[in-house]
Amino acid sequence: SVVVGGRHTLAADAQGRVFAFGDDRRIQLGLGDTRTQGTDERNAYGVIRQDVLGGKDTKTDIKRAVAYRYYDPHMQSQPVRTVAPAVYNRPPYPPPSFLACGEDFTIAVHRDSPDWFSKDQETNVLMCSGENAEGQCGRGLQEQQQSWTPVRLPKRSRTVSVACGNAHCLALLTSGELFAWGSSSQGQLGNGKRAIKAKPVKVTLQPTGEAPAEPQNVAQPGMPPEYRAAA
C-alpha cells in the first residue's frame, strides 16, 4: 500500500515493512527524532555533563534511522525504513495494518491486542509522527513535532478507517463512533466550533435517512413571517 502527504510518501511492502521518503523537516517520515544529534543530555543534575565531573554518564541514545548534519537538507530522496514506535512493558507492536498521511504528519495503525484474540476482539492504536502545531497528532500541544506517539482515542477500541486533511484527522471505530481532532478553523471537525482540538472529540452525525425538519412559519396571515423550529 502507498499513502501520500503534502511532500512525503510512505509505502508498505508485502511483509509489512514501511518505507518513507520525501520532506522530513517536521519528522513526518517516522524515522525517529531526527531534529537532534542523537543524544539526550538532560538529567537530574541539569545540563552539566556528569562524565566531566567524574560521575555517571546519564545520556541515552535517541532511536532514529538517519542523522542530518548541520547543513544537510532534512529530506530523503530514497526510501528509508521507518522506526518502530517505542514500547513500555509490552512486546513490540506488529507492522501497521494501514497508514494515513496529512500535509506534514503521518498516522500508522498498529494492533495492540494479544495474538490469540479473535478478529472481533482485536483492538488497535493510532501512532502519529510529524507536525503537531494544531493538534494533528491527537494527544496534546506540549510538543510542536512528535515522533510516533499514540492518539488519545478510547482504550480497547478498534479503528477501521482514518482520513486526514491538511491539519486535521477523522477516525471511524467499529462501534460506529466518529472522532475528530486537529485544526477546525473552517469547521472541518464538525463539532460546531472553530477551536483547535488536540484531543479527539466525538462527532455527532444526523441519522441516515432522517433529514432535519424545516422551520415553520407561525405568523398570522398578513403578518411578517416568523419562523420556528419544528417540534
Instruction: Based on Cα principal axes, name the global outline.
Output: elongated
Could you give the distance between the termini? 49 Å
Given the helix and strand composition, which structural class is it? mainly beta
Integer-rounded radius of gyration: 23 Å
Average residue pLDDT: 85
Instruction: Please state roughly what percent of the residues sit in beta strands, choosing from under 5%, 5-15%, 15-25%, 25-35%, 35-45% or over 45%.
Output: 25-35%
Portion in helices:
under 10%
Described by strand count, sense and barrel closure, the largest sheet is:
4 strands, antiparallel
User: What is the H/E string?
Assistant: EEEEHEEEEEEEEEEEE
Q: What spatial order of strands do you see in the largest sheet?
A: 1-2-3-6
Fold topology:
Elements (H helix, E strand, L loop, with lengths): L1 E3 L3 E5 L5 E6 L15 E2 L9 H4 L6 E2 L13 E7 L16 E4 L3 E7 L12 E8 L13 E6 L8 E6 L3 E6 L4 E5 L14 E7 L12 E2 L9 E2 L3
Antiparallel strand pairs: 1-2, 2-3, 3-6, 4-5, 7-8, 8-9, 9-10, 11-12, 12-13, 13-14, 15-16
What's a concise summary of this model?
The protein is mostly beta strands and 231 residues long. It contains 1 helix and 16 strands.
